[in-house]
Amino acid sequence: MTDNMTIDRPAAGTTCVAALYHFATFPRYETLRAPLQAVCDENGIKGTLLIAREGINGTVAGTDQGIARLLAFLRAQPEFAKLEHKESRASKMPFLRMKVRLKKEIVTMGVEDIDPKKIVGTYVDPKDWNALISDPETIVIDTRNDYETAIGIFKGAVDPKTKTFREFPDWVKNNTGLHNKPKIAMYCTGGIRCEKATAFMKEQGFDEVYHLKGGILKYLEEVPAEESLWEGACFVFDERVSVEHGLKEGPHRLCHACRNPIMAEEVNSPYFEEGVSCSHCYETRTEADRERYRQRQHQIALAKQRGQKHIGG
């Protein structure tokens, strides 16, 4: 157990974190895997990039120069010439390794023939978002999963409480009350899930469908905290765990047993054991599970003593 632990995280860091995605017709995606991996390795970049027939998606981190070289390589591909990205800072490298993966979809919704290049909602800039979601004629929907919404959400937003993005289409179909107001405003972390979510909503017959351009990350970057309608922190898929206004590193850490974000006070819970359990998962895991996690945590500790990084850490 860990007692009286505090989390002291700098507001800025030397590591550049770049989140990016781009939908494109990209039938040659398999041929890009090796050269893309090579560019990342040559420039000391770590993270994950997903490439598929429908485009590219991922988050990577490295030096400013390394990230610039990667982005130049990607934008030199005709399919990604207009690729946009969002940058933030980390106090240390937030990834353990670099992975370039071939996928069926760059964001998995599981619905055939949803193509954001053909139909999509109306983009709303962060500066205009507050007015839209404050309109009483608007229903605001968070398209993220429950462990993400648990630590932050826009004021007044509907939380579908989905476990995965695959559950979102059924949630929409089962909530007929969504048709009660003319406007649907949707948001997610960086914008990519809303590309497919708004396309799906349009195909389901919703007319006025909007989504936050650049997602929560762009909103937190551009909208001053004193004007913000965002409540809490934004979950991110790297070792920072969360970010706040100005894209400063948030106060959360990750339970490596259940992957849920936890606050400093939860570290002091009797249910918390580093790498083994927390208050979110203690009741849903068996003692055999916890013993297995303890063995993994032991290996992580041994690797740390040797000055190495254990992949499970």
Automatic annotation (TrEMBL):
Q: What Pfam families is this protein classified in?
A: Rhodanese, UPF0176_N
Query: Which InterPro entries does the UniProt record give?
Result: Rhodanese-like_dom, Rhodanese-like_dom_sf, TrhO, TRHO_N
- Report the top EC class in one word: oxidoreductase
Keyword Lipid biosynthesis carried by entry: no
- Which PROSITE patterns is this protein grouped with? RHODANESE_3
Determine if Magnesium is one of this entry's keywords: no
Q: Where is the Rhodanese domain?
A: 134-228
What keyword terms does UniProt attach to this protein?
Oxidoreductase, tRNA processing
Q: What is its EC number?
A: 1.14.-.-
Q: Which reaction does it catalyse?
A: uridine(34) in tRNA + AH2 + O2 = 5-hydroxyuridine(34) in tRNA + A + H2O
The record's listing under SUPFAM superfamilies reads: Rhodanese/Cell cycle control phosphatase
Q: Which domain of life is it from?
A: Bacteria
Give the protein family: Belongs to the TrhO family.
Q: What this chain does, per the record?
A: Catalyzes oxygen-dependent 5-hydroxyuridine (ho5U) modification at position 34 in tRNAs.
What is the protein's given name? tRNA uridine(34) hydroxylase
Species: Pseudorhizobium halotolerans
Species lineage:
Bacteria, Pseudomonadati, Pseudomonadota, Alphaproteobacteria, Hyphomicrobiales
Gene that this polypeptide is encoded by: trhO
